[in-house]
Specification:
173 residues, alpha/beta, Endonuclease, Chain A, five-stranded mixed beta sheet, 5 strands, globular
Length: 173
């Protein structure tokens, strides 16, 4: 078994590590994350890397930002009764985006997040104690077994833009 340690210094960001894992493992079936904090900025940043991953599961131990919480609840409502809520759902989203101070990238990210919730590509859950501060990212390939390994990253970086090393500033300590 290979182990490699890296630190979030210079260009060794968590985002670049994720990109390397996804670029070199085209058969990832599950991306599982256990984090203290989950922010829209983090999801929007890595979402393109997750295009070919059918199952994304995120367990949040402390806090989810308001953007993700709000749109996840709308996506879950859509799942429960698609026929009755689709038009209302789309109308509310359109109105919310038109009235808010969103950029085109944020709008695209919100719509993608909602689609991911509706299609059950992503599952986000909160840990009941709200005191879980661990950070672990698990990449499991298709047909995973004891003979076909995946990848695991653990450390101190949350699934946020700062935790991923975005905009040249990282939240690495």
């Amino acid at each position: 078994m290979s182990t490699k340690f890296f630190t979030n210094q210079d260009h060794n960001t968590l985002f670049n590590k994720f990109k390397g894992v996804f670029d070199n493992n085209k058969d990832i079936e599950f991306f599982d994350a256990l984090v203290g904090y989950f922010r829209a900025s983090g999801y929007f940043k890595i979402r393109e890397l997750l295009n070919d991953v059918p199952n994304i599961r995120i367990l949040v131990g402390i806090n989810v930002d308001q953007i993700l919480s709000k749109f996840q609840s709308k996506g879950l409502l859509f799942q429960e009764n698609a026929d009755d809520t689709l038009q209302e759902f789309l109308s509310e989203i359109k109105k919310d985006i038109q009235e808010a101070q969103y950029t085109a990238d944020i709008e695209k990210g919100i719509l993608q997040f909602i689609e991911d919730i509706c299609t059950r590509k992503i599952e986000v859950r909160a840990h009941p104690s709200k005191k879980l501060h661990a950070k672990i990212y698990i990449f499991k390939p298709e047909n995973w077994s004891e003979h076909k390994t995946g990848s695991v990253i653990t450390g101190s970086s949350n699934l946020t833009d700062a935790g991923l090393g975005g905009n040249g500033e990282g939240n690495f300590n």
